[in-house]
Amino acid sequence: MNIIYILIVGLIIGYLFKSSLEKVDLSKPTNLALLLLIFFMGVEAGKVDLNAFSTFVVSMEFSVIVMVTSLLVAVFLGGRFR
């Protein structure tokens, strides 16, 4: 949750200095910040203890629900567009 505060401060600073930053290419610092954000979120997620079996079961349930829903949508919409 602490990263939300950093993002809000970054948005405020970016809004305040918007006019002076128009001439600067911000693609590389933005890419670096995004990579660091993904890295640190992964580090925090890595600290969580997971039960592999329950994760597998939930993943299988989700995939079955998605497949059945996709097939039902295809059957119902397929008949309408013929």
UniProtKB/TrEMBL annotation:
Transmembrane segments: 6-21, 33-50, 56-77
Key word Membrane present: yes
UniProt keyword terms in alphabetical order: Membrane, Transmembrane, Transmembrane helix
Annotated protein name in UniProt: DUF340 domain-containing protein
Biological source species: Methanococcus maripaludis (strain DSM 14266 / JCM 13030 / NBRC 101832 / S2 / LL)
Lineage: Archaea, Methanobacteriati, Methanobacteriota, Methanomada group, Methanococci
